[in-house]
Design a protein that fits this description.
Length: 166
């Protein structure tokens, strides 16, 4: 077994990404309404912050063309992807404006709600903090839902699923 040891920095960025990739994460798609229409982004940096009040966080890369719209969004929805939603996650990993052919509808505030997700957290912006080359976006959960099913996972640059009981 070969072990790679390094100090994180510009010269070891690939090694650092590879080490982070060893940790499997769930996959989410975050949506919001903009003046140019609905916008989405695929995110695997999602976590619970607090139960009372109900707060969650996710992170957006500052280099993303979608960063500014999400960092300033007053409301957004975080959709936890089911294992059958890999094409949707891949679609919004690349581009965030094309909702054509998708089953979605705007909520009362215009935020795009995607059908078929495993869970959803409808949020109001609570805080946005710098976090290196990302922004840490904290949302207050206004409404939530979930359904039975297995979640879509991401590990070592690949989508996958979880083998186990529901």
């Amino acid at each position: 077994m070969t072990e790679t040891r390094f100090v994180p920095g510009p010269d070891t960025a690939r090694d650092y990404r590879d080490a982070l990739g060893c940790f499997a994460t769930g996959v989410t798609v975050v949506t919001t309404a903009t003046g140019d229409g609905p916008l989405a982004i695929t995110v695997n940096s999602f976590a619970s912050v607090s139960l009372d009040p109900a707060l969650v966080l996710w992170c957006a890369a500052k280099r993303s063309l979608r960063h500014d719209a999400f960092a300033a969004a007053p409301r957004y929805s975080i959709h936890v992807m089911g294992e059958d939603q890999q094409p949707l996650a891949a679609r919004f990993a690349g581009s965030g404006h094309d909702f054509s052919g998708l089953d979605w509808a705007p909520d009362a505030g215009g935020v795009p709600i995607l059908s078929g997700c495993l869970a959803r957290f409808d949020c109001a912006a609570e805080a946005c903090q710098p976090g290196g080359d990302h922004s840490i976006i904290v949302g207050r959960v206004l409404h939530a839902m979930h359904r039975p099913g297995q979640g879509l996972l991401y590990k070592r640059g690949q989508f996958g699923g979880f083998l186990g009981l529901e």
